[in-house]
Specification:
alpha/beta, 7 helices
Amino acid sequence: MRVFAVSDLHLDYAPNRAWVEQLSLQDYQEDALILAGDLSDRLALIQDGFKALMRRFATVLYVPGNHDLWVHREGMHDSFEKFDAVCETASAQGICLTPFRHEDLAIVPLLGWYDYSFGRPGDYLRSAWADYRACRWPHGYDDAAITRWFVERNPAHSAPELEGADKIISFSHFLPRIDLMPDRIPEKHRRLYPILGAHVLDVQLRQLGASMHIYGHSHVNRHITVDGVTYINNAYGYPSEAHFTARQLLHVYTTA
């Protein structure tokens, strides 16, 4: 079995939907796809994306991204309700939301959000970042509390699917550490760093014993090893980003 990874398909855009539809219906029938969040803020498009990918892969593993939890166009009470709806839609289509085991390989999805462990948001970020308007949370939930709510639901290192696994791959939508961002990022774009992820995700993936971690969200593709863990971002991205995103599936592992 081969394992492929992609994130940030953003199926709100017709060219992105067309790319999914052109994927082979034969080439991946025995393979797994890690789908690291951000399909769409529209539940109908998320469902369509799940259906299309399940026709192509034997297994599709998924964690929601921030766009997937927007509620401003869906009429839901809050983003926790949207999370439940997205997960129910995924389960109904056969999408895997829990640890997956194949022979000596375990693949573990990690939920997350951002808790400002990468920095505090400034006035620009507070006014420009769409999550602050498009997501809605119950009273008393700040971003740190939202992060805790998600990461407390992640599997522990004692999960039965991990027992005896020779290779553990974890994945999240959000970044587990800010030093995954390359030095070349201009200073003006570093204002976004506070909303990229949470350090607690790195703590969790290392407790699991993961030697590879797939992530998304930043739209900055990377393949880098830090302190024994290989981190990979293969974001598809917006149509306007075609000049710097790979815009293809990435083969990340093959079982023996």
